[in-house]
Amino acid sequence: MDDLLPGMLHLVRDGGETLTRQLTDQLRGLITKGRLAPGQRLPSSRELAQSLGLSRNTASFAIEQLAAEGYVTLSAGRRPVVAEGLSLDSRKSSPRSSRGGGAQIRVSAWASSLQRSIWPPIHKERPRPFQPGLADEREFPHDEWSRCLRRAARNAPLRRDRPINHPPLQEALLRHLVVHRGIKAVANQILFVPTAQAGLTLVANALLEPGDHAWVESPGYGGANVAFQAAGAIVSGIPLDSQGMAISSHKETPRLIFVTPSHQYPTGRLMPIGRRLELLRFAETAGACIIEDDYDGEFHYEARPVAALQGLAPSPRVFYLGTFSKATYADIRIGYVVVPEALIDIFELAQRQMGILTSITIQDALAEFIGAGAYLGHIRRMTRLYRGRRDRMLQALATETGNRLAVETPAGGMQLRPAKPSTWFSARANRQVNPAPIATSITE
């Protein structure tokens, strides 16, 4: 082997790497790949230098580095010896490794179920025409947003105290939510998360124990199903009727209920006040909490937007979930959760420990964007734009399809959907049913 070792090394004398680095890396690779066996003696530094035409210092430095890393052992008066148990080649010990490129890694049942659970589907290419849920980024005031970002970036070194939820943004957003969504809260109840899905994950992990029951709308947003299952909950899809989630259709008592009352996804239906109060009374009696996802509640085309469920609650059981990406554009990846005041400390601790954090610089820019009135101005302009697109799309569908296609006129939101018969809804209350992908965006 002493004679073979030089032939296993290929040093480039005019390359970018030093000869010492090349020799060290190549010897290390031969050991980890099993080509130099554990217990095998290597040439001395003098012999190795002579066989490779190197200085003895180069060979000595390489061997000493490998000894410091634990790849070889050195003893006075003896040649270096390859240490035991360092080969990364498992083919000799695993008969299955020759088939399929090595042993397969088993994933959890939850991970395996993701492809069946996600709705809407994830498109990795450029956004497709009529893809629901995407704001029209062409209409966003990018110049004003850029100025806010630049000022926030310049202010970053001046911020000594760095809470994970930026107080100026909490205060600016609260003023907006109180006036325009009817929220009842104080500023530090607002936690900022990377996405609304991250907010779902935070609430699910903080509230649910394995085996708890959670309710979701059926049909509904598949991301809620994913978050609750990941927390170990037993998820039940509750059918909808003309007023929203049919609460009386299921017998098991839930720990957590997910609803989209302002603009149900994907039907676009509005939950009327009677059903909202019924849901709140049920949650109070059952000791359940509610996640109210107001994903596009900013856009309401008939009169004023309906006030949020959270503002009606007689006791703090409602978690209000929102996102900026629908009202602005997709690259502003910040969502928020309004949590009950008694849970602020524990939720901030859970948020920090789970790493569900967002850039303070982006939060600072958003605080200025909202405080200067640019956010509200953009929403009002986009409401007029989306309403016009909705009306033109409805007219075009009626012209092209006649009475062959009935379309429900949405009172708000960013998509519309052809009317479907009652077979939309699950015949089994414990089964989450997602509709066929025919929801249509009005943002293009």
Strand content: 5-15%
The backbone outline, from C-alpha atoms, is elongated
Largest sheet: 8 strands, mixed
Total domain units: 2
- Summing up helix and strand content along with how strands pair, one would put the structural category as alpha/beta
| Number of DSSP E strands | 13
Uncertain segments are: 93-101, 421-439
* SSE succession: HHHHEEHHHHEHEHEEEHEEEHHHEEE
Folded structure, characterized:
With 444 residues, the protein is α/β, with parallel strands linked by helices. It folds into two domains: 78 residues, Winged helix-like DNA-binding domain superfamily/Winged helix DNA-binding domain (Arc Repressor Mutant, subunit A, Orthogonal Bundle), CATH 1.10.10.10; 266 residues, Aspartate Aminotransferase, domain 2. Helices cover 37% and strands 11% of the residues. The protein contains 14 helices and 13 strands. The strands form three sheets. Strands 3-10-9-8-7-4-5-6 form an eight-stranded mixed β-sheet, sandwiched between helices. Helix 10 links the parallel strand 4 and strand 5. About 6% of the residues have low confidence.
